[in-house]
Write a structure and sequence with these properties.
homodimer, Multidrug-efflux Transporter Regulator, Chain: A, Domain 2, 2 domains, two-stranded antiparallel ribbon, 7 helices, about 70% helix, about 5% strand, elongated, DNA-binding
Chain lengths: ~150, ~150
Amino acid sequence: MKSYSIGQIADMFDLPISTLRYYDKEGLFPELHRSGNRRLFTEREIDALRVIECLKASGLEIRDIKQFMQWCSEGPSTYAQRKQLFEDRRDAVLKEMEQLRKTLDLLQYKCWYYETALTDGHEDRIQSMLPDGLPANIQKLYDNAFKE
Amino acid sequence: MKSYSIGQIADMFDLPISTLRYYDKEGLFPELHRSGNRRLFTEREIDALRVIECLKASGLEIRDIKQFMQWCSEGPSTYAQRKQLFEDRRDAVLKEMEQLRKTLDLLQYKCWYYETALTDGHEDRIQSMLPDGLPANIQKLYDNAFKE
DNA sequence: CCTTGACCTAAAGTCAGGTTTAGGTTGTAT
DNA sequence: ATACAACCTAAACCTGACTTTAGGTCAAGG
């Protein structure tokens, strides 16, 4: 089976070699083999890295990613846990996206605010519109950002 | 003008008092006054905290939030920089949302994967569908996640 | 008076997620 | 045979964002 050196994988994923060694030390590649003392990455580890990047992007910590990788090497008996993990991450990402949407609304409001301030040379006119006399589209951004 | 103690603000924003003191030490409230040696928070600092939470959620570091707060206390001459900052954060958040959308697609694919594996009792049938013989809706998730 | 609660400071500690350093091995090209 | 690139380890170091600790001030209530 085809295998790759740590340097090749680093190039493939645009990661520092030190990060790959750190991941290995943290147990993220429980099945990684060696030739002599050199790591041999295979399609298995490449798949693992894709999942690692996904789980990291979802906000999961290294120690929990390790847990997942261990489940993977324990076979079918852990399907239920693995499914649960991905459902939890999906829910966490949906929540994070909702939070970002609110953040975005406030940022867009602020973009409008400073564009207006720049045109006017002061904030007086805008301040006099607050908190609920803004142009309708802008008012919506402002309200959304603080809603809940 | 109405003012609040650090404890009242902590309750208001559901933040530890130590965090508020840390923010102050880092220069996030450049105009904060005191009575004796006690901090007096006003509407100004409450607004500041709302912006701090937004900028933090957008991924900005404390030192850059400090810069923004200093611009705010320098008056109209910094409107352009402040506007640019919010435009940059808006773009950063849009990028992050796009990244999260891809992450979500892979997570949903994995949810399907393990649901199927759990039903089948093994991964063999799924593996034989890879990389492009998945059900159409699932194939789309899988493709989106790795698309550039 | 003295205790209690809410505040204060400076400095040290914590935690995640790496990165850097120092020193060593191995395989190939000149 | 030697130089060089690419790999290895253990351990120390780094950064950001807090949190904890230790010790102190101060006003109000019993």
